[in-house]
TrEMBL record:
Species the sequence originates in: Rhodococcus olei
A Pfam family matched in the record: ABC_tran
Keyword Transport: yes
GO molecular function per UniProt: ATP binding
Alphabetized UniProt keyword annotations: Amino-acid transport, ATP-binding, Nucleotide-binding, Transport
Family per record: Belongs to the ABC transporter superfamily.
Protein name: ABC transporter ATP-binding protein
Length: 250
């Protein structure tokens, strides 16, 4: 684990970089919230972004996704520069999933997949649990089932880069593990590069290769998941359990 920017990744250097930013500033309406971010995700790598509430994780994800324009520095997503829109990044192979249940509740699971141009078989190959639920309105699925549908829909499109922002917010630990295991499998079997924001730190450390810890809009610690896990109590005390109001970016 290191507080500098030179942590060696576990993945071979030869693997393609699907996301890279250096000195990236991000924020809203010209006001910088995240400053000088250096991040990298390679194909087949699962990278976790963790930090206390308000540390800047979602702002970072929105910027990488193309929903917020970068305010400075350099950003490359699947070879496109930081000005490309979410739609054009999606065409290059970006999938972005969030904690919001993005399914249409009045349509069945099958109809939700069809609307997205995803074959039900492809989605069920990722989550076999969905097979029995295809005819059910998405609004009648549990929260965990809705997120399985969301994740299956995203992964069935064969993305090269998956951004997942608190996919498992509010879900039971067993479902969190199931969702994270599928994310890991997508990285291993299909070479998807993954950047994950996750509050379930212990669980995410079991599937991640590397971790960036954010505080007050900056990456202040980075390391392999093993390094962070070995020092987790200290990391949690120092960076993940800030007192309310302590996370105002500075
Ligand atoms: N639309 C916005 N306009 C202005 N400031 C915002 C906006 N959204 C978030 N912020 C501010 O940016 C900072 C970082 O917020 P962000 O949501 O990125 O943090 P986070 O680490 O994702 O937190 P959480 O874990 O609570 O979701 C916070 O101070 C927040 O108040």
């Amino acid at each position: 684990m290191t507080t500098t920017e030179n942590t060696a990744a576990r993945t071979p250097a030869a693997e393609a970089t699907v996301l890279e930013c250096s000195g990236l500033d991000a924020g809203y309406g010209g006001a910088v919230v995240c400053r000088g971010l250096d991040l990298r995700v390679r194909a087949g790598e699962v990278v976790a972004l963790i930090g206390a509430n308000g540390a800047g994780k979602s702002t970072t994800m929105l910027t990488v996704a193309g929903e917020l324009a970068p305010l400075g520095g350099r950003l490359s997503v699947l070879g496109s520069d930081g000005r490309a829109s979410l739609a054009s990044r999606a065409r290059l192979g970006l999938s972005y999933v969030t904690e919001e249940r993005s399914v249409i509740m009045g349509l069945t699971a099958a109809e939700n997949l069809k609307l997205a141009g995803v074959r039900a078989d492809a989605a069920c190959a990722i989550f076999p649990e969905l097979r029995a639920l295809l005819g059910r309105p998405a609004g009648l699925l549990s929260g965990g089932e809705q997120q399985m549908l969301t994740l299956a829909r995203a992964l069935a499109r064969d993305p090269r880069l998956l951004l997942a922002d608190e996919l498992s917010l509010g879900l039971a630990p067993q479902i969190v593990s199931r969702l994270l295991a599928v994310v890991r499998e997508a990285a291993d079997a299909r070479g998807v590069g993954v950047l994950l924001v996750e509050q379930h730190v212990r669980q995410v450390l079991q599937v991640a290769d590397r971790v960036y810890v954010m505080r007050r809009g900056k990456v202040i610690v980075e390391g392999t998941a093993g390094e962070i896990a070995a020092d987790l109590d200290a990391v949690q005390r120092a960076y993940l359990s800030a007192a309310p109001g302590d996370e105002t970016p500075g």
